[in-house]
Give the backbone structure.
Amino acid sequence: MKQVALLSDFTNSPFKTIKGKDRPILLIKENERIHAVDNRCPHMGFPLNKGTINNGILTCHWHHARFDARSGCAFDLFADDIPSYDVKVEGEVVLLSEVPRNKPTASYYKDRLHQGLEQNISIIIYKSIVGLLQLKVSHLEIIREIAEFGSLNHENWSNGMTLLAITINLWPELQENTRVMALCKAARQVAINCHRQPSRRKFHLLEGSKFDSQQLTVWFRHWVRTRHRDGVERTLLTQLAHGDNAALSDMLFGALHDRVYSNVGHNVDSTNKAIELCFSFEEEAASQILPLVTVAITQARGEEENSAWSHPIDLIPIIKVSEKTLKTIWKKDTQFSEASFSKFRDLLLGEDPQAIVDEMINLCRGKADPKCIAKEIAYVAALRLAQFPESNDIADWFAPVHTFNFANAVYQTIVRHNSLQSVRGLLPAALSVFQDRYLNIPSVALPNPSEKLIELFRNNSNWYHNLMDTLNEKQSWRIFPERVIAAYRAGRSLTELIDGLAAAVLREDFDFHKLQSVEAGAVQVKLWRGRMEVEHILAGVARHIAAHAPTPRGESKMINIARRLQRGQKLYEEDSPLDSP
Ligand code: FES
């Protein structure tokens, strides 16, 4: 313990602030006792010496959080507890311990994370995550905690769970700051999704003899068609217990594609994300997490139930007939061969849906790899984004974004398991690109930055800030994609640019679609390395981000406050000058 003050220092005020080892500390005299706490309010860092003490209750007047001055525990849970210190008084001298009373451990932060998720309190969630990462707890372990919470506390797969899966996928591409942002935002979204929701009912698999996978698949598709959610879930759990991932994939995506492009493609994408999330963890995670998709799968509406895909050309029979043809030509162990996709690309951008699917069937007949067909569709979907005109309504952006994300999900499902059921997704993906055609009139020119602009991003350590600053202004639709392409041509790596795009999304108050499209972009650009298509995909993602930026950036400010609080940094310049002990 170290001498830090004299009792006479408190003659005129109950407070004295001193410089602690790694943070400012507030000494409080109350009823002849001295207490010591971190001087930064755990809520948003306001200096507590500007608060008041009364009857042992320390009040921060910024948002009126109240704390027990002795222990630092909060009476108002939104604020979190304040780290407190042991104090001893020897005669006139006040002695202080150099370290807080409860040095936070990983299990302390995990408990706090749970409390933050249960109470949906952002600052507690963020501080717990920052604390866990500081203690070198792996992101997968943290995400597993959050995913488990989500699996128990709401009925339906939600955008928070999608963000968790995206965070895992993007993690290797991201810088430390962007990683923290991604993880915090995903966790908060799970908390929001679960807030005031009933706990999940526990279902059980079908008991008895070992069930045949094919029989389960037939039942599953039947229950989905007849919208019988309990039947769907019990059948899914039984299939899961078999441990046959190929059969599981066929069962899920077969049923999903029975409804055309259901819920504007979200169902295929979220089921794909659920599988990715489950496969990131140990086996039993799947039986906890995957059933969350059953509500959406059961309730989904396909485009055959809407009118948009029926006029002026009815696309549903085109899809249904082509599916039958696909079934006759699909061979399990096909050796795929090289194919030319230039005609297919032109048709995708054209006006004839029958010609699009006919060419796709021709490609399949010629043993073209379905992955390559999916890659081509995803590219054209990104091209639509890159050429999206400002004359459209702001909400119109979501149609081509849904198509791009859906096409990428179809690509990923085929990569994981190349089968008839996953390949069926190519048909709605291609026809969704066709459906978006009116939104590309007139088409905007693709970005082509000047040499001068490219030079600005070459050997420029400030390139990242130059890029980000562009998004501080509204209507940077043209400037931001142009700068992203300039940075790419100046030699910035794809990893740097993906991190930049993710950081640009995460500092805004966007919903999950933007990060979803960054992730889809990250997957697709790598498939076109060294080709012009890379620029077009980057431009598409960048243009979509720029269309909706800037926002108030409230959540990212809170995450930064959490990080500064955890690092012991001062948050407000108006802190009173600190006395050196
Ligand atoms: S209550 Fe103290 S900063 Fe909000």
